[in-house]
Design brief:
Elements (H helix, E strand, L loop, with lengths): L1 E8 L2 E10 L4 E5 L10 H9 L3 E5 L16 H14 L5 E6 L2 H12 L4 E7 L13 H13 L1 H12 L2 H4 L6 H12 L5 H4 L1 H4 L4 H10 L3 E6 L11 H7 L4 E5 L6 H4 L1 H13 L1
Parallel strand pairs: 3-4, 3-5, 5-6, 6-7, 7-8
Antiparallel strand pairs: 1-2, 2-4
Length: 275
Amino acid sequence: MGYITVGQENTTPIELHYEDQGSGQPVVLIHGYPLDGSSWERQAREIRAAGYRVITYDRRGFGRSSKVDTGYDYDTFASDLNALLTTLDLNDVILVGFSMGTGELARYTKLFGSERIAKYAFLASLEPGMLSHGVPQSVFDGIEASAKADRFAWFTEFYTNFYNLDDTLGSRISEQAVTASWNTASNSAPVAAYAVVSSWIEDFTADVDAVRATGKPALIAHGTADNILPIDATGRPFYQAFPEAEYHEIEGAPHGMLWTHADEVNAVLLPFITR
């Protein structure tokens, strides 16, 4: 494991924790809310086994990265990603984002270009913009209020819908795995639980256009039973806006498909990476 410094908050450096394992072409995996880089466990091991170097990192405020009070916006997140890529001098990178992590891929390209990037993969994406595709502002206001009032209770509620536990608990995910996710969330910065919410509802149209303009291969994959980022407000209109991308719907998969539907996700992701 390692740390890179991406800024300063008062008297302390802002550091991102990362792990860098395997060898070969680099694949950078960007996690979702409210998790950290370890949430890629079931994908990272398969990607390494296929002969790739895998880098995961914890977004500011999450995991073992600095628990800062500021910077919970996509311009800053993209700048943090740029710091990681430049500090490690990564080139020919396959960028893979999940959920909130898909925002970094597109915003990074708009702000910093695509010289270092070979391919893009968007899993359970935020794009192209939920407010313009039927999700009302009141939903996000409620999320922010709940997370601010009692983030621990909020995380319990969130994971019920993140993993569709009414359908998957005991069959596709264990109680222990849910607890591990909850523990990860509870160790994040208190402010991060609600400060990131406003970033989810940005209009990513210009960011998507920037990725399209690169002409580089892209993958979009989304679960049909996603209760956090419903496919009709995200994955399907995203593909309509980006028809050149390879597109897959993972039948019955909830938002937390990296765990519950790991085999199905890997069956889509690994061929894209290795192709």
